Predict the 3D structure of the following.
Amino acid sequence: MNTVAENVAASLLKIKAIKLEPEHPFTWASGWKSPIYCDNRKTLSYPDVRDYIRDQFVNVIKENYPDVEVIAGVATGAIAQGVLVAQALNLPFVYVRSSAKSHGLENLIEGDFKSGSKVVVIEDLISTGGSSLQAVEALRNAGGKVLGMVAIFTYGFQKAIDNFEKAACALTTLSNYNSMIDLAFKTGYIKEEDVNKLKEWRKSPETYK
């Protein structure tokens, strides 16, 4: 039987939410060269994939955070996923902006959020963890008790692991870089030499060319 990590990785590869191009690296907004590009927003266009991811989020939350009171999505990629999860759990939903609005109420957290609420944060993708943990900090500053974060996929960078540990924020991901590489090789999506390049990239992504 396939694990959740394998099933999610298979879905992301199938719908091309994840693209692997070891010979022709993508350029991230940070300037990093990368043999992988991940756009989990594409999952929303496929009802079966969308529903499966929602259900796995729900399972993780029920098992690990049964006393959750609010679901929070990180803008913008995790807003829709967060709404789906909140709806399935019959819980309130809020989302956290990357920066406060420059007009009106200048909100950073959108929705009816009450200080003292126990929150689980939904994220679509974890790279270094920087923007994800900014959302956690915003919720904590607003008086929220962040129980943990659940994300669709992580690259598994050591920097992200260190950042989440430093922030004392538990992180659970449905799938991950290792599961994706193993599955891609097993199914013939990539070759053995590609596996080596992909593993080398993760060791030092900032210097990859």
The CA atoms of residues 11 and 49 lie 7 Å apart. The chain has a mean pLDDT of 92. Strands lie at 18-20, 26-27, 33-34, 36-38, 70-74, 93-96, 109-110, 118-126, 145-154, 171-176.
